[in-house]
Structure formats: C-alpha cells, structure tokens
Amino acid sequence: MITRTGAVVAIAAAVLLLAGLLMDYPELVMIGLAGAVALLVAALWMIARPQLSVSREILPFRVAEGSSARGVLTVTNTGPRRSPPLVVTETVADQRVSVPLPSIGAGSVHETTYPLPTGRRGRYQIPALTIGHSDPLRLLRIGRTASEDSVLLVHPKVHHIVPVPIGGPRDVEGPTTARSPQGGVAFHSLRDYQPGDDWRLIDWKSTARTGTLVVRHNVIPDEPRQLIVLDTSALSYGDGSFEDAVRVAASLCVAAVDAGFPLDLRVTGEGPRAPQWTDNATAALDQLSIVHPTDEDPGLAALPEIVHDVLTDGAALAVVTGRPAAEHLELLASLRPRFLTVTLAQIGTTTHNVVPREVISVGAPTSERFAAVWNQLVPG
Asked: Is 73 helix (H, G, I), strand (E, B) or coil?
C-alpha cells in the first residue's frame, strides 16, 4: 500500500519525467528517475518482510470506567535477520492506539505495554491488531493482522454507599425455610433418615420414641435478599442522566454483596425471568456494562411481571430510574406489602415527583451526589 508520501513522490516523478522529456530537460528527467528508483527500492524492501510472532493480553480484561487497563504485547522475531522498527495499530472503542516497536534481533523477544482507553463503560470487542511494515523512506506500507480478537469489559463506576435498608435489625441466626440450603448449623426440623445422612445428626430420643431413625434437618439460615431493578426506558431520562443511573445501580449491587446479601439485578427491557440470586457482583456489573436505554422499553410499567416470580419473603426491592410517571409511583406503593422495603432512586436534574410514604426515596442529579445524600439518610 502506498503512503501519502509515496503518492506525492510517484506523482512528482511522473510529472518531472513527462516535463523533462517534453521540454528536452535532462535534469528534470534525472530527478524523475530518482523518484521512480526510490519507489522501486521501496517495493523491493517490502518483499523481505519481517517474520514476527505476536501475542496480546489485556490486563485486566475487567475494569471500572476511568481506571487503568493495558495491553501487553509479546513479539518474537522468528526470522533469520533483525527486523526493522514497526508500528502496531490497536482499535479500542473506536479509538486507534499506535504502539511503536523497536528493531528486534533474530530469535529475540520484546515485550511492551500500552494504555487502553477506559473512559466509557461497555463491552469492547478488540479486533486482532495490525502490524505495519514500511520502507525506510516511508513510501510504501503493508499491514497484516496478528494475535486474536480480545474483549475488554469496562464496568460502570462504583461509589461507596451503604446497602439498601431491609427494614429492622439483621437477624444473626436468620430465619429458615424448607427451601434453605442444607449443610448449615441452624436447626429447622426433624425428618426421617435417608441413606447418606450423617449418623451424627440422628436424634436418638425421637428415634427411640417413634421407632424409626430420625435426623436433625440443619440448614443455612435465609439471608435477606436484595432485588435491584434498573429502568432502561429512554423516556425516563430526558436529561441524559442514564449513565449516572447505571452507576447508582452498580453501587447498590456492590453494596449488597459487600454486606453479604444475595443479589438479583433486573433491567426493565429484558422482561421477566427466573430469579438468579448470587453473592457475586461481577455478573451484575458485566450486565450493567452493556445496557442501553431504548424508546421501546416499557420502563417501570414492567415491574409487576419482573417481580412476579420473585419469592419476596425476606427480599428488599430497590428501583433506579430517572423521572417516573405518577402511575409508576403508585405501582411501587402497591408492591410494598410484598417486600421488606421498597426503595426508589431518582437520578437526574429534573424536579423529582412526590413519592408515597410507603416508599423510601432519594433523588439526586448525579451519581456522586446520590452517594453523598444516600449515605447521610440511610443508616449504615
């Protein structure tokens, strides 16, 4: 591929040759021939392209927006001669990153790092990088792809906040149900012995009284759970505050997990699904990295369907939105009996609506301001 400099030299050489021949001006012919020879030498130079093996690693491949991430290139010269200086081109989030490589001796390995742009959240598919090879005069340039595609996940920024209130002090022992996971130390009930049960759990008094083997059914106490719903309707964010709403949802998710509460994140655009309680916020942050508002999203009108399959005994609901309609606020109030608490975060610069008393509400123009107000109002 001819470069801009090469194109100028080619045009100048052709013009000078033609002018010299037409005007019988040998000096112009010689200068034109010099340009043509330079292009010919550049073409011959490009034939002997370097033999390089390139591997790329993204560290870390998950990062919060604004934090540092870097690419690590390991280049091995597998050819019999020293390679010329090269330029590697990387494309991340529609931004081109150029990484210069020095001359590498035969059989030598060179490792270099370079920063990656992380200013915007998202899931970025980083295509295989391009290695550019040029002649010394930069007249011609060829590029070839190396390595493989990579992925960079930029999570939304997380603010330090206290978790969503669950309505009263936390029970250290915790309630138990038949659905509670087995294997804990909390006694739930007695049941008949089953093959494989630990003999140390046999209740000998009850066994003697009933005449059949009876064991203690111990479980892990139920923890209060937190269901967090993010409104992804574009109609709720007329002031462009959606990015701040995403950061608030991410902060609530991390706060819940840090406090030891099982978490389930929903977005209004995905529709109903089975509950997926987890004690790891990574999946929630991955999901929040790729959400976008749409006009077709039903917004908070989808709440009844979203919470329909949620076993709400022992769950707290937190909703993050922009400016909800009045009927959506009444909808939140109607859901209050099904949850320990119902919390509403209104993010944006518009005037916030009056919220029913049954709903805990905090409004703020930005995620930073929300975190400050939230930590002042909600007991830690």
From this structure: strand
Could you give the 3-state DSSP secondary structure of residue 336? helix
Contact in structure between 117 and 68 (CB atoms under 8 Å)? no
What is the per-residue pLDDT across 29-50, written as a single tens digit (0 to 9) for each? 888 888 888 878 777 766 666 7
Split at pLDDT 50, 70, 90, the class of 318 is: very high
Which tokens is 47 given? 């034939």
Contacts of 63 (CB under 8 A, 6+ apart): 69, 118, 152, 153, 154, 155
CA distance 233 to 222: 33
Q: What is the pLDDT of residues 222-266, one digit of tens each?
A: 567 889 999 999 988 877 789 999 999 999 999 999 988 888 999
Cα–Cα distances in angstroms (integers) from residue 135 to residues 36, 42, 139, in the given order: 15, 6, 6
> Contact 161/62 with Cβ under 8 angstroms?
no
User: Running DSSP on this structure, what letter comes out for residue 294?
Assistant: B
CA end-to-end span of the chain, whole Å? 63
The residue among 183, 170, 79, 174 whose CA lies nearest residue 133 is 79
Please work out, in degrees rounded to the nearest 5, the angle formed at the alpha carbon of residue 15 by the alpha carbons of 13 and 21. Answer: 100
pTM for this prediction: 0.72
